[in-house]
Design a protein that fits this description.
The chain is built from five helices and no strands. With 138 residues, it is mainly α. The radius of gyration is 16 Å and the shape is elongated. The mean pLDDT is 85.
């Protein structure tokens, strides 16, 4: 149960940290991308856009954290060996593979390459390393 709650906490913290960065990225790419112009027309307030992105990010990241917390709980009951600076090597490799699946397609678009890389590193660090240590502490 500690792993599931740790996943929720890490997902919420990640949503709090990445929301302002996502809002600024969408507003900055407004002149280059048609998608950004549809999401945030020129003159859109970054704060208003941040509220909308934050609502979606809280739902998505906490749900992902809950699922990964359940996966960590299940994996720890079968394989508890540590490695790569994590208390559970198998779980960390699972998170790294999931991050690669999410980030590699986004790397094909030059306009979002930097933001996808920053988000992928944050996702891997938060869910791959912080979540297992937080679950172990709880």
């Amino acid at each position: 149960m500690a792993a599931v709650f740790a996943g929720f906490v890490v997902g919420y913290a990640l949503a709090l940290l990445l929301t302002p960065l996502a809002a600024v990225a969408v507003v900055r790419s407004n002149s280059r991308s048609g998608f950004a112009q549809r999401v945030a027309p020129p003159g859109t307030s970054v704060i208003a856009l941040s509220v909308v992105i934050h609502f979606a990010a809280i739902i998505a990241f906490t749900a992902l954290g809950l699922v990964l917390g359940m996966a960590l709980s299940g994996i720890e009951s079968r394989r508890g060996g540590g490695g790569l600076g994590s208390p559970n090597l198998v779980y960390t490799l699972l998170v790294l593979a999931l991050t690669a699946v999410l980030v590699i397609p986004a790397m094909a678009l030059p306009a979002v390459r930097r933001y996808a890389l920053i988000g992928g590193v944050a996702l891997a660090l938060a869910f791959g390393w912080i979540l297992p240590w937080l679950a172990r502490a709880g």
